[in-house]
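Homework-ish question, so no full write-ups if that breaks the rules, but can someone show me the predicted structure for this set?
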Amino acid sequence: MATNTIARRSFAETGPRTPVVDSVRVDQVTPGARRGTAVRLILAILIAFLMLIPVIWMAMTAFKSRPDATASPPKVIFTPSLDGFIGLFTNRTQLSAGALAAELKRPDLSFWDRQALARGMRIIGPSKFVQQIQNSLIIALISTLLAVTLGLLSAYAFSRYDIPGKGDWLFFILSTRMLPPVVVTIPIFLMYRAVGLYDTHIGMILLYTVFNLSFSVWLLKGFIDEIPIEYEEAALVDGYSRLQTFRKIVLPQCVTGIAATAVFCLIFAWNEYAFALMLTSERARTAPPAIPANLGVGGIEWHVIAAGSLLFLIPVVIVTFALRRYLLRGVTFGAIRQ
Amino acid sequence: MAEIELRQVAKKFGNLWAVKPMDLTIHDGEFVALLGPSGCGKTTTLRMISGLEAVTAGRVYINGEDVTWLSASQRNIAFVFQFFALYPQMTVRQNIAFPLESQGMKRALINQRVDEVVKILRIEHLLQRKPGALSGGDKQRVALARALVRKPACFLMDEPLGALDAEFREAMRAEIKRLHLAQHATTVYVTHDQVEAMAMGDRIVVMSAAEIQQIGTPAEVYHTPTNLFVANFIGSPGMNLVPGKYADGRVHLPGGSVCTVPPAWQPALAALPSDDVILGFRPEATQVSDTGALRGTVYASDLHGSYTMLHISLERTGRINGNGGDKIVHIRTRRDVAYPLGTEIRFDLDPEMMRFFDPKSEKALSKEARG
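A: Not a homework solution, just the prediction itself:
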C-alpha cells in the first residue's frame, strides 16, 4: 500500500528489523516491549546497586585508617590502610619513642610487625578473633555435616517407608522451627548451664544440628520423593540389599539436594547470632557476636568491625557462589518439575 | 528355564481387593501377556511374582520352589520397568554390569557377559553413554540387556513399551519377541495394549476388576471370548454386542433387523431363562449385500487404508449411543466403496462368527446346550 519507503510504517507491517532467532512471543518483539526490557534491566541494576551500598561501604571502611573511618563528612576517597585488619587479628602495646627505635632494629620483623611499628605499636600476640573464627568454622561445619547426614537418613525413611502417623511426625519436626530463637534462648541457656553445655563447642554443634535438622529433613524429603522408586526396585531385583541400594542408587541421585541442604544449613549455622550471644562467652564464642564486641575500649573501632565483617562474609559468598545452581534448586524444589 | 505357579494368590490394599485369589500357571519358556485396563491388578500380580509386593494370601512357586516369602533379590528374576529405571549416574556398561556385580562375579567374566549381551541387542556403540543421552528405544534395549545379562529364571516386564514412541514400539515389539524365541525364557509381560498382547503372547491372561476373566491363546480370546468384558476389550474396536430378543430360531434386533441363529446355537439360546440375549460379532464377520438381513444407516465412516470401518446405526432414535440411544455397530467394508453418511445399508453376518451372551450373567453361551 505504502509506496513511499521513507514513510513510517507500523511494526505490524514491517515486523522486527532483525530476524527473530530466539523463542519469544510476538508481543515481546515490538519496539515498545524491547524498550521496556531495557528499562527494566537498568532499574534492576540500580536497585542492586542501592542494595549493595552498605556492603560496599563496609568493604571500604575495612580498608580505612582509624581517622578516615570516623571522619565527618565521610570520606569516599581515601588512602587504603591495613589498620582494621591489624586491629582485628592482633593485640598490641603502644611503644615509647625509644623503645620503638630499638624495636625497629630487630632483624626478625615480619610485614605485620613493621606495619604495627609504623603506627607506634608492637604486636604482642594474636587477638581472640582468630580463635573465634576457628570456633565458627568448627561449629558450622560439624553441625552441617550432622544435620545433613541425620536429615538424609530420616528423610529417606519418611519418603520410602510407611511410618504410622507420618504426617504428624513431619509436622512435629517442622514445628520445632516455628518458635523464634529469642523465645527459647533463656530456657536453653538454663538447661545448658545445668548440664554443662554452656560455652562448649559440643553444645553449639548440638543446638545448630537440632535447629537445622527440621529444615534438612523437609528439604531432603522433597528431593528423595522426586527420585522414582523404580530405581531402587530395579536394584533390589538386581540382588542388592536395601542399604546397598541406598548407597549406590539413592545417594548419587540426591547429590543436588544434599548440596542445597548443606548450603542452607551452613549459612544458618555460620550466621547465627542470638543463640551464640547467649550461650557462649570465652571458649566457644563464634564470630557473629564477637565482631560487634570490638565496639570496645576507648571509642568505636569501626574499621576493625568492618574488617571483621568483611572477612566473615567471604566464606558465605564463596560457598553461595560455588553452589548457586543447587541453591536455586533448593528454593524452587517441588515447584519446577525437572 | 522356569515354571511359575500362582496358587490362590491375592492382594488387598486396606479393604480393597487389588487382586482377588487367582490360580495361574506359566509354563517353562512360555510368553504370557497379562492384559487388562489400568487398575485391574495386572501390575500387582506381576509385582507379587517378583517379590516387590508381598502377597496377602496364597503361594508363589518358581520351578516348584515356594518363593512366596523370598525377597526380590533371592528369586533370580529380572524385571523390566515401564520407565526403564536405568541408573542415571552410571554409563550403559555400568548399568548392564550392575546385577552381576552384586553376585561378586570376577571383573573379566562380567565384561565378557556384558559384551555378549550387548551384541545380542546391538548396542555395542552405546556402552560409554549415560542413559540420559539415549533414545527411548535404546533405553529399552539397555534395560533388556540388564535383564538378560544375569540369565535369570524368568523375565517380568511391566509395560516395557508403554513409554516408547509409536515408531519404536513396533520395532521393539518384534525385538522382544525375537529375543524370547532365541532365549526361550519364561516371560510374563504386562500390558494394557491388546494389540501388543495379541502380537506377542503365547497365551493371554485377560484381567479386569482384580480377577482373571479369561486365559487363552490370542486366537481363543479373540474368537471365543468367555464374557462380555473380554469380547469388548479385545479387538479395536471390540466385538459388536447387540441386545436382542430370541424367538423361534431368530434374534430380533433393535431397528427391526432379524438375525437367523445357526441351528447349533439354538438349544443354548432356548435354554436361557428369558428371551433376552446379546448377539456378538466382529466387524470383519460381516458382508454388505442388498439382501442382507441386518440393516441400518451409516453414522460415520473411517478410512483405515486397507479397509473402511463403517459405524452403522441400527435404529434411528435421534439420540446418539449410550443408554437408550442408537445402537452403533462397526462393520468392515472394502476400502474402495464410499458410503455417504445417512445411506441405508444392509449386511449379513458370517454364521460361523456369531457369538451369543447371556445379558444377566454376562457370560458367553456355548454351542452345546447346558440347561
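Now go work out the reasoning yourself. Hint: Chain B has a mean pLDDT of 88.
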